[in-house]
Design brief:
Radius of gyration of chain B: 14 Å
Oligomer: heterodimer
Structural class of chain B: mainly beta
CATH class of the largest domain in chain A: Alpha Beta
Strand order of the largest sheet of chain A: 10-4-3-14-20-19
Number of helices of chain B: 1
Number of strands of chain B: 7
Number of domains of chain A: 3
Distance between the termini of chain A: 44 Å
Shape of chain B: globular
Distance between the termini of chain B: 42 Å
CATH architecture of the largest domain in chain A: 3-Layer(bba) Sandwich
Largest interface: A-B, 18 and 13 residues
Structural class of chain A: alpha/beta
Helix content of chain B: under 10%
Largest sheet of chain A: 6 strands, mixed
Strand content of chain B: 25-35%
CATH architecture of chain B: Roll
Number of domains of chain B: 1
Shape of chain A: globular
Largest sheet of chain B: 7 strands, mixed
Order of helices and strands of chain B: EEHEEEEE
């Protein structure tokens, strides 16, 4: 199908994706791979842009405790990642720096270690015949795996599924792959109030232009909360602040990512993983940065000898239960919503699994049925 | 390539750039001392080993990283000279000496 221009209805596409962050760009690129003409509408620098503040983990081991469907979705994405990275490199020349050597979650006390062991055992139990490979590793063996480990570290959980990538290069590569596949990227394009939504018939105004399509995908991060009801959908997401600090480049090598510490391919150490419920407040807080730094230095004392060169905060897109939300509208079929706080980890699933479902017009209920926003309606 | 603006009354102090004694105006920065000394590089980048000299001179670009008095990766444009200061080339990324 090709784009046409109708003065009354605007430029016609096969799909409109609202939101140019990691979620929207991965889906939009995936849709072009299904032969669709796609318009990707990106709000601009006034948006909260969670994708610009990402930590960069491709992380499976802590995802989906008590929600095996989420565990499977995350693992499917981690599995899709190597091919995604290779495909992006071949199409765009950008190396997103994917490494999947497995990852560890460090425990700084016996109580933390025992708690972690119980959680991992439960993850395996819930995985059923899907399987969940992991090991609880005690300090002596861990010291051989991770040079420079601090004396306070009691042990760690390890799974082979984890890794990391450069989130900013990923975002750039997705955008470039999308436009090179013929997609229409529209910057400074906040969707205005004059939304038309009917079954398989949508039109929106953004950036001074009108766009029409039989499909629309809401991937606007925190903006989805207000957009979704306009399409007969629900996206009860709230901001959750995370802060990240980054050290100077160092010659030391951290052989694999840790839940809260990873080394970039250029040698910087990133420290993060704070959680604060502070609404739409993107300021940084020294007390929180201090805790991040203290825990990092307890994990690896040598990190304390490095200078901090940058720090920032960003807002996660968080559902009430911390899981992603995917839906197709019942009143306006053709309208989809995708919400998550793991734009990097889930990029593989969004581009390779979700986009084909959207192109085909139905979400796979076996994979995504339990991730509907309807789960929040139950009494 | 670079020279100090001549100011007849300006006091100078002696510092050592890659071991060579250099007289620089009091209040100058270590980066200025590197430029006065005529070095061709003050650091080699951590990723490709490319040679670099001070550039922005105002603490933004991090191209002037040097080892100053034994401390690696200091932004030399932000460090005022002190008598006898030792300013040396920063070779690649910082070594914390930890992982041994």
């Amino acid at each position: 199908m090709s784009s046409t221009h109708d003065v009354s209805r605007g430029a016609s596409h096969d799909a409109i994706v609202i939101g140019g962050g990691l979620v929207g760009a991965a889906i939009a690129w995936g849709l072009t791979g299904q032969g669709l003409q796609v318009a990707l509408l990106d709000e601009g620098d006034v948006a909260y842009r969670a994708s610009r503040g990402n930590f960069g983990l491709v992380w499976a081991q802590s995802k989906g405790l008590g929600a095996p469907h989420y565990q499977r979705w995350t693992r499917a994405s981690a599995l899709a990642w190597p091919d995604l990275a290779a495909d992006l490199a071949a199409r765009t020349g950008r190396d997103v720096g994917l490494q999947q050597p497995g990852g560890v979650h460090l425990c700084l006390s016996v109580a933390e270690f025992e708690d972690r062991a119980a959680k991992m055992a439960r993850m395996r139990e819930e995985a059923g015949n899907f399987g969940f490979e992991y090991r609880m590793i005690r300090a002596p063996e861990l010291r051989d795996m991770l040079p420079g480990l601090g004396p306070k570290v009691v042990g760690a959980s390890w799974t082979p599924y984890d890794g990391h990538a450069n989130p900013l290069v990923l975002l750039h590569a997705l955008h470039r792959a999308f436009t090179e596949a013929g997609g229409t990227y529209v910057p400074n394009a906040k969707v205005e109030a004059d939304i038309h939504a009917a079954p398989h018939d949508f039109a929106v105004t953004a950036g001074g232009q009108r766009f029409a399509a039989p499909r629309v995908v809401l991937a606007a991060g925190l903006g989805n909360a207000d957009l979704a009801p306009r399409f007969g959908l629900s996206a009860p997401v709230r901001p959750q602040r995370g802060q990240v600090i980054v050290t100077e480049r160092t010659a030391e090598v951290l052989p694999m990512p840790v839940t809260t510490i990873r080394q970039t391919t250029e040698g910087s150490i990133m420290l993060g993983d704070s959680i604060e419920e502070v609404g739409f407040d993107t300021r940084q807080k020294p007390e929180v940065i201090k805790v991040i730094a203290e825990r990092a230095v307890q994990s690896f004392p040598w990190i304390g000898r490095l200078n901090i060169v940058r720090a920032w905060s960003a807002l996660r897109v968080m559902a009430p239960d911390g899981l992603p939300i995917y839906d197709q509208s019942e009143t306006c079929p053709g309208a989809f919503t995708a919400n998550c706080h793991s734009g990097v980890t889930l990029a593989g699933a969004h581009a390779r699994l979700l986009a084909p479902m959207i192109a085909a017009g139905a979400l796979d209920q076996e994979r995504l049925g339990l991730l509907t926003a309807k789960r929040f309606n139950a009494a | 390539m670079f020279r100090a603006q001549s100011k007849a009354h300006q006091e100078t102090i002696e510092v050592f750039v890659e071991g060579s004694a250099v007289r620089v105006p009091q209040g100058a920065t270590a980066a200025a001392a590197v430029l006065i000394a005529g070095l061709f590089r003050i650091r080699e980048t951590a990723v490709t080993g490319a040679p670099r000299l001070p550039y922005c001179m105002m603490g933004v670009c991090f191209d002037c990283l040097a080892e100053i008095d034994g401390v690696a990766n200091r932004q030399s444009c932000m460090v005022p000279v002190t008598p006898g200061m030792r300013i040396n080339v920063q070779h690649g990324a910082r070594q914390t000496g930890a992982a041994g």
